[in-house]
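A student in our group prepared the protein record below, which I am reviewing. I have pasted the whole thing underneath without changing anything:
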Amino acid sequence: MIGFVSVVLYLRHYSKRWLFYGPDGVYGLDGIRGYAAESGTWSLYAVSGSPAFFEIVFHVGLVVAGLVTLGVGGRLVLAVHYAMLWSLYMANPAFMDGGDALVCTGAIFLLLTRCYSAFTIVKPRPKFKNSLLVSALNNTGLLLLATQVAVVYLMAGLYKVQGELWQDGTALYYILNVPEFFLPGVTPHLVHHDWLMVLGAYATVLASIFFPVLVLFRAGRPVAVMTMLTFHLAIALLMGLTSFALVMAAYDLLFVSSHVEDMRRRVRVLSARLATKVRMRHLVEV
């Protein structure tokens, strides 16, 4: 999902890449270098003002993002992807919507995992002798990432509880009326119903706070994840924070990976039984 979101980002800005990220663009080379220095970070786009260099860095980033989406290259390509994506973010921080922070903070954790093998177009490699170490690193990365997601939800919920607008249930009304988040034809109908705004505000706070509690129990994980997936779908549709919603949704699914695997196993069993019945019926008819 992270690779897919990145590919979409590259393609969405492709025709105007020079304006948004180029050395003569909105920020310019000096602006990119100044922002990186002020933030104590770096960006490959700040290395040179050469047009050829910019084109190479941008297109390499796009290709690498595509490889990550297809599950090609393993940890090495994943690490290069994060370096390229971080450089892009630092070249124009105006496009950050929260999803970028989630990607970058989870980068180290994902590098420990085998996330690149969850969906891949290449044949799986044979197991190595150090599979125990690989499994330990994978589980550690997943645990750290899950902990980060739980902490993000908990802190977000506790922060909202302190806000007067969240306490009286009017926060969503004001948020949805912000020009950047206003969706013509939809938002006016939603904010017209006061009860819906109040219910949505309280549900958001409660879902965020109780998410870490629910995921501690296997039975509570599907409920927690489905609740937050609904929340992120609403964010993507109503507020336009698509990358943030998709990245968080992908992280949320970590908590129900075993449930998904159980469902896939049941589907395979049912499919096999159905196929057997069809064959038997065909033999009887013959």
Notes: The chain is about 70% helix and 0% strand. The first helix runs from residue 2 to 12.
